[in-house]
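Large ribosomal subunit protein uL24 (Tessaracoccus antarcticus), 123 aa
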Amino acid sequence: MAGLRVKKGDRVKVIAGKDKGTIGEIIAVFIEQERVIVEGVNLMKRHRRESQGAGGRRIEGGIITAEAPIHVSNVQLVTKVDGADVVTRVGFERVEVMKKRADGTEYKAFRSQRVARKTGKEI
C-alpha cells in the first residue's frame, strides 16, 4: 500500500463534508485507515461518566469535545504563495544528494522530496 501525500504538521483545507472550507493543521495520521485528524475539524462530543482511574486517580466526567478522523481524500494541502493560502496537489521529485558512510567516505544518492504542483517548490 502506498503512503499518504500529507503528514503530521501540514496545513490542509477541508474540501468535502460538514466542515468544507475550513483550514487547519494535521494533528495525527492513520496510514492503514487512510484517515487524518485535523485541528478544529469534525468535532464530536462524548458524554463521559466520572470514574476511579488506575492508582486511585479520579477521572473527571462531563461532555468532552474532540476531533474525529476524516478521510484523507477530503483534505487538500495548503501552501503560502505571496502571503495568501493556495490549495495545491502534492508531487514527488527525485533529488541527488551526498551521503556519508560509517567510515567517513561520501557517495552520491537520490532521495525523494515532496513538491507543491502549483509552485514547483519543496514542501
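Residues 11-51+60-116 form a domain with the SH3 type barrels. fold (CATH 2.30.30.30). The chain has no helices and twelve strands. ok done for today
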